[in-house]
Amino acid sequence: MRRNARRGGRRGWRAWLFRIAWGVPLLFVVVTALQVLALRVIDPPTSAFMLDRQWQAFRNDEAGFTLRHEWVDWNALSPELPIALVAAEDQQFPSHAGFDLAAIDKALENNARGRPVRGASTITQQVAKNLFLWDGRSWLRKGLEAWYTVLIELFWPKQRILEVYANIAEFGDGVYGAEAAAQAYLGKPAKRLSAAESARLAAVLPSPKRYSVRAPGSYVQRRAAWIARQARNLDGPQYLAACCGVPGVDADKLQR
Fold it and tell me: What is the pTM of this model?
């Protein structure tokens, strides 16, 4: 009977481990999928990066720190802003499925030659990282970023991806989203941004704590001019009409 009891105990442990082995990954898939699916229709009130910045301010006793963020819907963004973001960050955004493979190949080749590290993150990948994850270069974070990128592209239309990106991107220390940035640095709502102003906002995105929208240095000025040229070369807001329904652009008329 003792042998039977031991065998039964081993079978019990094996069954428990088996349930854990498939149950935990399944739970992860379900929870993350529901998380992303919900945010297709629910506007996120904050992001992982915003929460981290608030924690840093608390930990470092930054008494004067105030986080600025104001969500605005797609129709409250200037038509010039989404195309400026795409021109600056991810020109293949309308056509890729979350990963720009050509850009990844170029980045790997560039990095292999010992040149300065060059990234190849798409806007979708940046949304995944900023909204759900943390900053860093670990394989764990990159793997989670890839998983969330797949889910976002699967569940969200391109317009929603750009809308969320415009509302959670950091444009200055503690300033998140186009509306807060436009009000703080340009004294106007995001809906009234010009092409040049949109390009200037997009120009600081590589390093928003280093570069300034309000007082752009020579690098930001050059980059903003390049972004504006790229946006024009892409045919301006019309470039996004088919995939994103850019406000103020009639996609049906463009297709005729």
Answer: 0.85
Q: Is 213 helix (H, G, I), strand (E, B) or coil?
A: coil
Bridge partners for 172 per DSSP: 175
Query: For the residues of 136-192, what is the DSSP string, one character each?
Result: S--HHHHHHHHHHHHHHHHHS-HHHHHHHHHHH-EEETTEESHHHHIIIIISS-GGG
Higher pLDDT, 1 or 79: 79
pLDDT in tens, 175-233: 999 999 999 999 999 999 999 999 999 999 988 999 999 999 999 999 999 999 999 99
The kind and range of the H/E element at 89 are helix 80-89
Phi/psi for 83 (5° steps) reads: -70, -30
Name the architecture of domain 39-58+66-255: Orthogonal Bundle (1.10)
Please report, for the chain, the start and end positions of each structural domain, with discontinuous segments joined by +: 1-38, 39-58+66-255
